[in-house]
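OmpA family protein
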Amino acid sequence: MARRKEPEKPANHERWLVSYGDLLTLLFAVFVTLYAMSQADLKKTEEVSASMRRSFGLMDSKGAAPRLAVIDVGRSGVIPEMTVTPPPVRSPSRMPATGRLKAGPEEFRAMKASLDAYLIRSRNQGKVAVALSERGLVITLKEAGIFESGRAELTPESAELVGTVAELLNKVSNRCRVEGHTDNQPIHNSRFSSNWDLSTARATWLVKLLTGRYDIEAARISATGYGEFQPAASNDTEDGRARNRRVDVVLLSSESEAAEARSQVR
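Predicted structure tokens:
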């Protein structure tokens, strides 16, 4: 007996709804995950941003961003002259000179390497030169970028650099000599009547800054101005004159200190 053929079932035209529903569910899960991640990243970003603002001092004590001072130029269009004052720098803790290391040749080499590395990182190689000499460690602050032209004050941009030099000086107990130099071009303005005056004023200004702000003992540091009479290069060229306009910070070796002491006794 022949088997009865079952009638064909009608085609289900709505099966695509199952796949479509699965796709919508998957997309919803993806968007929920992305939203949750974005909220977490936003919160983390705010925390990192706040931490950086606190670290770099970009907020005042009340948590508000500092405001920029507006200079009233007036109708003349001339910006009024302002006194150059380097920003305050946290001073290293004071330590008696007797409790510090007396640097010798090995320490001087290490200090030179450390300062050279800092100058490369901060791109200040053209402003400062560091050298070892018979006298000790010589840190030369060039006029360009360090001092205002024809003035004794340092530029605001040099504050961090001077702070780094001061930190280095504070690590040792060696005596320090700050020596101002100029080129041979005559100067005569309302503040200085000679190159001697300018070189001495720059050295003295730097000594006052190092002792007053960075707690370097006044008994171990002194200022001297040589004018144009101890040039480092020829004054016949502009490059040579630029090299001569400088202030040398000399960290004396033990031998140089002893030689100075003997000369003072005579």
